[in-house]
Design goal:
The chain is of the alpha+beta class and 125 residues long. It has 3 helices and 8 strands.
């Protein structure tokens, strides 16, 4: 799911240099991000589980359920992102139902991937 088109005209962006931490496991965040440019590694326990690229959502779970982040996100290259706070997120899901559905699809895809990974891990015991 590529969210970058929705925010392509955004003038207020956040920049992270290669190697900088975007989100840290165990820390609260009051925003989620949409990656406009660059790549970042998503890490669990120091292990890279996926690469976030243009259009990727980051930190959406913490914004939705008010819990600390569950992964580290480290900029692999210089990155430009849009920060979306709770107020703007609620506005977007109320005014743009397809945005809400797309966020749910992303969460569902990630849950299925984690379930698949867990099943593979259990099968290798």
């Amino acid at each position: 799911m590529d969210f970058s088109n929705l925010f392509r005209h955004e003038t207020e962006t956040v920049n992270f240099s290669s190697g900088e931490t975007i989100l840290k496991c165990g820390e609260m965040s009051d925003v989620m991000y949409v990656m406009l440019e660059g790549e970042a590694e998503v890490r669990l326990g120091g292990q890279v589980i996926c690469t976030a690229q243009t259009g990727t959502l980051l930190g959406e779970l913490g914004l939705i359920d008010h819990n600390p982040g569950c992964a580290d996100v480290i900029a692999r290259t210089d990155c430009r992102l849009v920060a979306i706070d709770k107020r703007r997120f609620l506005f977007l899901i109320q005014q743009t139902p397809n945005f809400a559905l797309d966020v749910m699809k992303v969460i569902a895809e990630r849950l299925r991937a984690m379930n698949h990974h867990a099943m593979e891990s259990l099968g290798n015991r």
